Amino acid sequence: MGNNWIIQYYFVAFIDVLGQSRKLLNLARLPVAQDEQEKAALILHDTAGYIMSLRKGFRDFFKARNKSTGILDSLTLNKRAIAEKIRRAEAIITSLSDTIVIAVPLSNEDYHCLSINSIYSVLYGICGIFLVALAQHKPFRCGVDVGWGVQLTKHEVYGSALVKAYSLENDVALYPRIVIGDSLFEYLNVVQQLSSDTIEAKFAKKIAGDCKALITHDYDKLKILDVIGEGAQSIPSGIDKPLVEKAYRFIVQSHDSFTKSADMSLRARYGLLRSYFESRIHLWNIQSIHS
Questions:
Q1: Which has the closest alpha carbon to 194: 209, 182, 183, 204?
Q2: Can you give the pTM of this predicted structure?
Q3: 149 with 184: CB under 8 angstroms?
Q4: Which CATH number do you get for residue 38?
Q5: Residue 288 placed within a domain
Q6: How many domains does the chain have?
Q7: Which pLDDT tens digit goes with each residue over 37-53?
Q8: Which of 13, 19, 213, 271 could cysteine-pair with 144, CB 3.0–4.6 Å?
Q9: Residues spanned by the domain of 198
Q10: Predicted confidence band at 209 (pLDDT cuts at 50, 70, 90)?
């Protein structure tokens, strides 16, 4: 190829934080007076500041995933080296305005270990950060899929993988949820069906199964990330009950508010999100809120 681009398959998650544009348009002109500057500072803190913290949250999550916890210290040096290698997780994280794109190059090196472990880390990371976003009254939508792409720069992937993930977020998701594309599920099937019995292959097959455990079907039969389902709940030292409660309360408050204001579109969207949560909160010993 002319620019020596390497074309390969990528996993891509496209995240769009909702409501940011409306807040930015509340600042109609450059602030001059003291009260205008104070208003602008509040708007920027609520928009740009939040986006920056969300980006940092994803990057910090991946740093923590790769940090040694001491669990492997009892292994021999050889076994520890293998374990540390197959549990690595890496992702390309880039942002533009109120969107975040997370990409993972797919490779069959070490029987897909790096790729599948990275995908699992992204999916689980999105579960946690989706709940944090709801608890902070900053919901987002997301599309996730697999397709071909090229890495234009160190932090930018371009190609069908990005288009597919964007289309799922923009055209399909409709309300705050994470929609999973069919190509990702096909890739998980490929990894689960590996015929090898090496340590790496066994690990990859297990993690592919763990990825599937984070996926369910929504009311419209679309595959979505099951952010508070059994797969997310079963992860040790993972998502805690108070975070789920805060997210749920925001959803109920939003649904009630849009119902009272007769905003039928947002009422319907948050009604769907509320229905999903209320189908799962029993797993966390949380009682439904009747309103």
A1: 204
A2: 0.88
A3: no
A4: 3.30.70.1230
A5: no
A6: 1
A7: 877 777 777 777 777 88
A8: 13
A9: 8-239
A10: very high
